[in-house]
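R.M. (postdoc): so does anyone remember the format we settled on? I'll just put the structure tokens first.
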């Protein structure tokens, strides 16, 4: 062997270094593939586009040509056809814009795209587990990417980097166009549940009457608002001027409590023909952050803010009871922080089957109401009498 050939032969140390490098590269590739698979089956999950007649029990993405998310990107509805002649109209949440500043802040305050929303649809009340009494119902899901509690028809313009930038508060346009598109697959259901969580709960209160008017065949109607309480003196202005909501929606907003105003108006119009439900975590850690921003311009969550929220929730419950005879209330505690005692935000998209310290779960409570038995649970958390 020539001397230069011997020098070119890799040493044992170099061979081990090369092996280790190969192992590291393979590990990185495997991890990247695992992460990709995880994301595609969770946050990046996408349902097939509905074309033709829907298959029973299968989730679909329903394109709506004129709809758009707040950043101008695509928006679609989500649908699952059930075997029962019953339907859930289900509004998703994801923050809110109340002023031009929050519209410009975008993702700091609200969901601006459809990212992750297909995945959310198949959990909680939308799941097909045996214990879910709604598993055979049709689901009309309205994703949220407009910052306007699903009620806007407007555009907010501002200048960014010298260019005109548009925020589309088109939630009502999206919802309305989607329902017009999907109704042909729903038929004439005899039972209707209108519900939503967080911003979708606010939407439930604001749009329940509109939804009900689209289902004249439904004689059994229940409306359930999940985790929606923010006090703000400017609700009417946000709805009328920023979101450009339909006038019949913004005109109802006369106090600082948008949900109480809306549910009271619903009861005053439809009376006992609609069963009205409200549930909330008693020290909601997300709602108190938005309430903190409204009051101080700063997102925060502390024990003191939790105390304030708990007090406001107690007043909300009293207002509902006074204004809506027979209203159903479910107050709960879950994932309570040991120091602040602040609690989880929203329940129907996740832990809807947990009893949460009560006799029945939120799912059971809602289903009982659908069947004519409206009850209250958890009021003792607020010092309220059962």
């Amino acid at each position: 062997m020539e001397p230069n050939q011997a020098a070119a032969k890799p040493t044992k140390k170099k061979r081990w270094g090369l092996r280790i490098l190969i192992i590291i590269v393979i590990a990185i590739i495997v991890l990247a593939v695992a992460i990709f698979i995880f994301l595609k089956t969770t946050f990046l999950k996408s349902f097939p586009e509905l074309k033709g007649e829907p298959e029973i029990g299968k989730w679909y993405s329903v394109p709506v040509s004129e709809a758009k998310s707040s950043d101008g990107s695509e928006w679609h509805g989500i649908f699952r056809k059930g075997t029962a002649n019953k339907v859930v109209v289900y509004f998703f949440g994801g923050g809110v814009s109340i002023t031009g500043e929050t519209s410009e802040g975008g993702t700091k305050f609200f969901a601006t795209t459809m990212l992750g929303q297909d995945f959310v649809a198949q959990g909680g009340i939308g799941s097909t587990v045996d214990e879910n009494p709604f598993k055979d119902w049709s689901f009309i899901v309205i994703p949220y990417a407009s910052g306007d509690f699903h009620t806007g028809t407007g555009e907010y313009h501002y200048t960014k980097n010298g260019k005109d930038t548009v925020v589309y508060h088109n939630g009502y346009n999206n919802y309305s166009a989607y329902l017009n598109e999907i109704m042909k697959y729903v038929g004439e259901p005899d039972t209707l549940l209108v519900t939503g969580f967080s911003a979708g709960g606010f939407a439930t209160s604001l749009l329940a009457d509109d939804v009900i008017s689209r289902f004249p065949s439904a004689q059994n109607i229940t409306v359930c608002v999940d985790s929606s309480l923010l006090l703000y003196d400017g609700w009417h202005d946000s709805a009328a001027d920023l979101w450009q909501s339909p006038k019949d929606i913004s005109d109802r907003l006369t106090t600082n409590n948008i949900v109480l105003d809306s549910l009271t108006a619903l009861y005053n119009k439809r009376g006992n023909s609609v069963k009205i439900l409200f549930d909330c975590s008693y020290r909601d850690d997300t709602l108190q952050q938005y309430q903190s921003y409204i009051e101080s311009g700063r997102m925060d969550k502390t024990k003191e803010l939790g105390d304030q929220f708990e007090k406001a929730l107690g007043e909300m419950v009293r207002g509902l009871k006074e204004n809506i005879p027979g209203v159903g209330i479910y107050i709960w505690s879950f994932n309570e922080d040991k120091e602040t005692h602040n609690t989880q935000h929203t329940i129907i998209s996740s832990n809807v089957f947990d009893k949460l310290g009560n006799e029945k779960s939120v799912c059971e409570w809602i289903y009982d109401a659908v069947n004519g038995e409206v009850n209250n649970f958890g009021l003792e958390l607020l010092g309220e009498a059962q």
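R.M.: ...and that's the designed sequence above, right after the tokens. Also worth knowing: The radius of gyration is 24 Å. Confidence is low (pLDDT under 50) at residues 1-7, 33-40.
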